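re: ur question from yesterday

yeah so i grabbed the chain u mentioned. its 597 aa long if i counted rite. heres the sequnce exactly as i have it in my notes:
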Amino acid sequence: MDLKKLLTPFTAWGNITKDPVTIKDPLNERPGADRYRGFHKNDTELCIGCGTCEVICENEAIDLVPISDSKDGDSGLRPMIDYGRCCWCALCVDICTTNSLALSNEYTWVSTDPEDFRYVPGVDKKDWDNNEKGWKKPDNYEFYSLNRVHMDELSPEQRSDSFIEMMKGYSKEQAQQEADRCVECGICTATCPAHMGIPEYIKAIRNDDLEEGLRILYDTNPLPEICGRICTHKCETVCSMGHKGDPISIRWLKRYIADQNPSEKYKEILEVENLQSKDKKVAIIGSGPSGLSAAHYLVLMGYEVKIFEKLAAAGGMMRYGIPEYRLPYDQIDKDINYILSLGVEIEYNVNIGTDITLDQLGKDYDAVFSGTGLHLGRSTGIPGSDNKHVYASPDLLRWVVEGKEFEVPESVVVIGGGNVAMDITRTMARLQMAKYGKVQVIATALEKEENLPADREEVVEAREEGCDVNAGWAPQSVEIVDGVPTGLHVVKCNSLFDGEGRFNPQCDMDAKEFWKGTMIIESIGQGMDLSYLSEEFKKKLKFGPRGRVETDEYFQTGVEWFYMGGDIIEGPDVIHGIANGHKAAVGIDMMLNPEKN
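ran it thru and got these structure tokens back, copy pasting raw so excuse formatting
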């Protein structure tokens, strides 16, 4: 016999010198062990009401109940425990995505009212709320991976002079591995402007049923290829998995579904056939995300739909404002061509207001929806900004798409720190690299590094590609020599807002820099062009803050047949535009078919 096994029983003699544990009042004092699984505690400040505890409980001992108004990332619900069902298995604690749930080591509770044993931990105060003993999730103990699956991309060297798409997409194995991290809480759906069925389409990926995934996408989003690449993914900012690790790559999973389904099978997969016309016509102004979305849902409802587009191709700012390395043209066309295949017509190079008036559209069509977007650049108004060599970023980005020739200088300064500023910064860098074999682009923004409005990956990737991004500087003037810019004068910006939260930049006028650049590009935001609204027509509308037309919940204006949506009303981003277009289509249908109300 093994000597260790032989001697093990005798180790118990070591306890002979220890003081015995005596419970003097066993009826009232029966403490549980330090890690005993007793009654629940919940830190309601950490809890987001995601419901993973409710789903995992096999005894159905947990119900989510409302305790406050919901907000982004918080459902406003909290778990109520039924101790007639609870078996203290602690699965709810182990799966909790925010570590808000725990079990005290209290296990005795006497009451004659059975309803007392159904309570909301953390809300219904209990004696053991501050008891630190009991069961907590052990460190490094997770049911799901906290790290998102990395998507492969082109290296900075591969992409620095190329407009080829830099993100390569997920493989089947990568997509399913990432989908496995989802706890199906639904917080993302509540936050998404289009309220997409995110847990459902992620589940379809796990089940390898990508046709079902596509059907779920198209319920609320007819631009999945586009949105799967450039969506602002507000859903990911509230993902419950992001409280302890990386949020689920919801946008990339959406892209995976769209990429894997061939467009020629869309009608079959989505079961679209024999669309019947209601003999009523709707005009759409602009073929951006809101216009395309409205057109998609209206044609499915049976309306004759025609889009009037000012430019030579459809897509709006998705095509003319986002570089091809982020959103390839063929992927834009895949989404748009499917919508056109349903019977939607687009007339290009039509300028509403001159080629055809809005009033005439109102006479020729039963309803009109306008989603004309934000195509005008804003100016800083600093001295020298009116020089012809000071450009607006939307103009340059559009020229690149149109193939319009313009001088690519050896040195460029971009004013702005948002995503559009990063787009033009990286676009000019690519053009410089292709022409000169080197990059000399400086981007400057008022905001400090940690507050830059651009997505963090955009800033990082710009620097990887040789661009210089300088945060916390305020533009003062463009230096002009012989009619041509030579650079930008800036001073250090210490703060943007005053004590009352108003925009009021404060600068150190003694901390100065001069950045050389023979081209200055302003990218501090975009404005809307409402010149197609005559002065007489404007009198029928109500305007709100920042000159935006006010609409009702279905985006109907003060003119019964006229609807407006997208960036000119809400946003700016693609997913808001898609949601606006969808809801406007519902509103137009209700207006033209009042029996539906």
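noticed a couple things. The mean pLDDT is 93. also The chain has four domains: 29-135, 156-269, 281-374+528-596, 376-526.
anyway ttyl
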